[in-house]
Amino acid sequence: MRAESGASRPQQPTDHDESALRAPETMDSNKPDSPRTSVLFVCLGNICRSPLAEGIFLHLVDRAGLSDRFEVDSAGTGAWHVGELPDARAALVASQHGVELASRARQITEDDLEHFDWVIAMDRENLRNIERIAGATGSDAEIHLLREFDTVNDGDEVPDPYYGGASGFENVYEMVHRSCEVLLDRLRAA
Fold first, then answer.
1. What's the CATH code, domain 35-189?
2. Which residues contact 185 (CB under 8 A, 6 or more apart)?
C-alpha cells in the first residue's frame, strides 16, 4: 500500500488526438459530491518516471486544493522492481523541487485498466503494452502519452533517465512537471 500524502491512491493493486482529451466523468471542484477522477502514471519499472509523475501530480493537486477530487497512483509494465522505493536520483530531484515520492513500485494489472479513468504512459512502448491490456479487458479508460500535454514540442516521450546522470533526471522532472500542469488544467476544465 502506498503512503498517503494528499490525494488518495487505490488500496489495492488492482489515435490520440486533441478531441479525445476529456475525462470520462466531469469534475466540479466546487461541489462536495463531485466524482473523483483517477489517474495512473505508467513507465517500465515504476522507479523513475512514473513515480516522479505521480509525486508531481499529487503536489500540484495538493497546491490547488483538490486533493479530495483525485485518486493518483503509478505502476510499471515490468515487474523487475516490485516493492522497491523510487530510484534515489528521482527522489533527490523531486525533493529539490519540494515534491515527495512516497510510492513503492508495482506492476500494472488488468484491474487498473478497469479502475482508473486516465492511464498516462511515459513512452510509446509502454503505451502499446497498456493498450494491449486494455484491449483484452474492454477498458474504456482514457489512455495517453504524458507528453501529449507538454507545452514544449520536442518529442512525445519522456526519456528513461535510469542509465544516465543527474542532469537527465532534472530534464525529465521539467518535462513531467510541465505536462502534469497541463493535464491537471484539462481535468479541472472537463
1. 3.40.50.2300
2. none
